[in-house]
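Quick question, first post here. What does this chain look like in 3D?
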Amino acid sequence: MKYQEITDYSFLLGENHYIYKHTEDDDTLHLFVKSRPHEAKCPYCGMVSRSLHATYERVLQDTPIHCKQTYLHANVYKYDCENPDCRSHRFFMEDLPFAKASQVRTDALNSLILGVSMFLSNEGASKVLSLLGVKVSNDTIQRLYNRIDFIDNPDVEEIGIDDVAIRKGQTYATAVYDLKDHHLIALLKGRDAETLKEWLKNHRKVRLVARDRASAYAAAINAVLPECVQVADRFHLLQNLLEHLKDIFKADNAGYYLYKK
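> Answer (accepted):
Ran it through. Tokens below.
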């Protein structure tokens, strides 16, 4: 079987950007990136421009490769807006699909940092990420958390509800997520019925809720949406099954020992 060398990196950067050079040493890897099209749409008026004004380099830390700190050096274009009615914005920058304006890390790396820090303290996440090849401080992780926006949906029909520990043993919150794509739409203070009731009053279209076994959540749903179907989520179904199996095994073992005696 013959193998063909792959030079298409669109799965990493998108169709409009490509890697034209790379350098590396023992600790770091540098990838140099350019865009294919020499045109861009003005974000203010929508007109496509091909008038190049200048170029500059953006350096972005990316997800690590082979546990090396990985950086993208993006050669970014700056364009003149060709729309004479768009005088308030004479110039605009080319958008990067993998990083927003002014970011020093790619979107993929920010997602990785937040994913790891969900299960650890900021300090612990910083240390673990450094072993993987990510350079990020405790304060930076906290700033990423502070910038998270939850986009609520008043028309949501199927939701999941669970309690989460902000500080284990001391501070808890109620997480509400959309069952269709599992993205978080609300993070409510506490884990009692009152805060959930207030949220449900503004989401009357909810017809199905997957929740844990907390009686407070059940009471809140019954009070505001009595016709809503409530089901146990997979984690708690599995937990119920394991507890039931333990009782069966205990009963079988007790009967075995009585028979032996």
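The two ends are 67 Å apart (CA to CA).
The mean pLDDT is 84.
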